[in-house]
Each structure stands twice: as structure tokens, then as C-alpha cells.
Amino acid sequence: MKKLGSRVRRTLPLLLAVLVAWVAPGAAAIRVDQLEVHLEVPAGETEAGTLVVTNQRDSAERIRIYVQDWRRDEQGQHQFLEPGSMERSASGWIRLTPTEFTLGPGESRTVRYSFAVPEGASGSYWTVVFVQGEPRPVPGGGTQIRVASRVGVKFYEQVPGSGEGRGKITGLEADGSGSFTAAVRFTNEGDLPLTPQGWVEIRGASGETVARYDVEAFPVLPGDQRLLTVSDPARKLEPGTYLVLAVLDYGGATRVGGQTRLEVR
Fold it and tell me: Which of 49, 76, 83, 134 has its CA 20 to 30 A from that of 10?
């Protein structure tokens, strides 16, 4: 056991971990003049633009620029994927120049992009352009860890005159044992990004409103689902039968709703 432990201690300094952190813009060593770019390029046409990258360190920074697909999971957390792995990926439509360069302390550089939308495109597409610094060692600890900060610039493309916003509530569950919670699942079934908002309501056996909870606006990309949880630890429901309603408005012609019965014993 002592020999094994000694071997492990000798090996640890040779390990190298590189962590990439997508930090808040204000805390980043790198600044980009735009964090979201919204385009409406007709199918078959190309639009050009620029991003300005600034090194906020007091030392030189090596910059690398690349694209990835991205989406949100059910809880709204970002997931980053290989370019072209999503159905509505725009990662292959964007060209960036330059993609690698060095910035001195406080120095800025303009990065040019061209965004070419192919013929036949319809609805919305998206990608993220990452501006990443060089990995730098983190002081302390036996393991050598390097952290590279990066800033993501989201590109959204909406092909003019096309696309349909369509969504619905595809699940609703409620629990009144101890305290009240409700889980609402919303699915974006169209090809445009949606931002639903609405409310969850508890009704008693005679139809009276017992409680109502607002659901703040949340983004859902085409093809994605979001799971929203409404919780009220202070709400103790009396034994009986209740109707739980969920109503969401995403800007379509009508609101969408769902309901479920809740038995409290």
C-alpha cells in the first residue's frame, strides 16, 4: 500500500487538466462588443458583419475563435455540441476571419464574419461563436490545472417570411402532500423560438380559485422541451379534490393549457 501511495504522489504533478469556463461577460478576461446577433437573411443570400474582441488582461492573450451548436436542456441549462449535430444548426453557414491571433494588454481587434443562408432554408437556425483565451495555470494544488475563459456570441437566423410558432403543454403533474408543487412541461413544436409565459392555478371542488402563481417568460428553441416547476412550501391544502390548471401564452393565436386533478388526503 505504501508503494502504491508513493507512486500516486509522484504521478499527480504530471497530470494536466484544461478547464474551459464560459464566464459572465463582466468577469471575463476577454470582451466582445456583441453577445447576441439576430439576422434575417433571405434564403440563398449572404450577410457580412463584424465582432470586436478586446483583451482586458494586463498581459498578452492568445485568442482562438470557433463555432459550436448549442441548445438548452429541460431545466434551461446550456448544452454545447459539435458543429452540425443539430437539425437547425447554422454552424456551417458562418465564416470568420481571423480565427487565431494575439492581443496585447487592452488591445482590440475586429473579426469579420459572413453568414450564408442556403437555398430552401425556412424558419429559424442558430449557432454560437466562441472567443476563447489561452489556458493559464491555476495556483495551488498538486495537480496542474489550466483554465481558459471564453465568451459565447449567439447567432440567431430567421429566414424572412417563413416559419411557424407552435407549442403546447405536453405534461402537467401536481403534488399537494405537505406543500404544493406543480411541474409543467412545454414543447416547442414549430420552427421558431418561443418565449411562453402564463400562470398555474389551483381550483377547489366548487370551482373557486384557491391560489394562482405567475410563470415568468422562458425561452424554448424549436424542437426543445422545458420543464417548469412551481413550488409553494407555505401552501398546505386541506384534504379534498382540486383542479390544477396551467395556461401559457407564447404569442400565438390562442393560449395553450393543461389540467390535472389533485387528490389531497
Answer: 134
